[in-house]
Amino acid sequence: MSTWVEGRVAFVRHWTESLFSLGVLAGEVTFAAGQFARLALPAPAGAKEPMLGRPYSFVNPPHRSPHEFYAAEVRDGPLSPRLARLRAGDSIWLLPRANGFFTIDEVPPAESLWALATGTGIGPFLSILRTDAPWETFSRVVLVQAVRYARELAYADAIAEIAHTHPGAFTHVPIVSREDHPGALRGRIPALIDDGRLEARAGAPIAPDYAQAMLCGNPQMVDDAQQTLARRGMRRHRRREPGHVHVEAYW
Question: What does pTM read for this prediction?
Fold first, then answer.
């Protein structure tokens, strides 16, 4: 357990019966916006390793405390149900350094940045968009928040804060796939790109000459959206072969 940093739970917020956020006080842990931590609790007796850990992206920007993580409770999962039952003051463990390359300094400049998220995949975007970097690089930022049901549209206050801080440069597009909801598009991200409704709502194009796209969430959305964007000439970005699409799959 010596490689882990012991933190303390600052708060637990339950958004729905299965979605929750954890605030964690652990000042030794450092990260860049868009990266993920590894959260852990002591493993059950008889396990091969002393700690049971899983990756979770930071929701807070690096300059704010406590650290915050947005998670879905997986029924019968080994860790997430235990995390959901934590209370303020409980111990939780993290590795001292974060990981991941889903950061804004990996994204080439463009006119606009499209941040396309499903479910808890909105977490790293909330961290990124509450730093200065994207607003210094892009004239427009479109945050697409896709969920199944309207009650899953979490973090409305954080999104309103971003909109207030960057008037005219920020657009939030909510999508609800399984019910109608005022102000939200209905459908799936790839189909809404394909038929042009997403661009029409945002008032900005998703095209290689204008945009960079970051995709985070359900692996099926990530795969399907990449195929949809590829038909528009937008290819996966790599350091040795610059492109337009950056991905982080959650499952």
Answer: 0.96
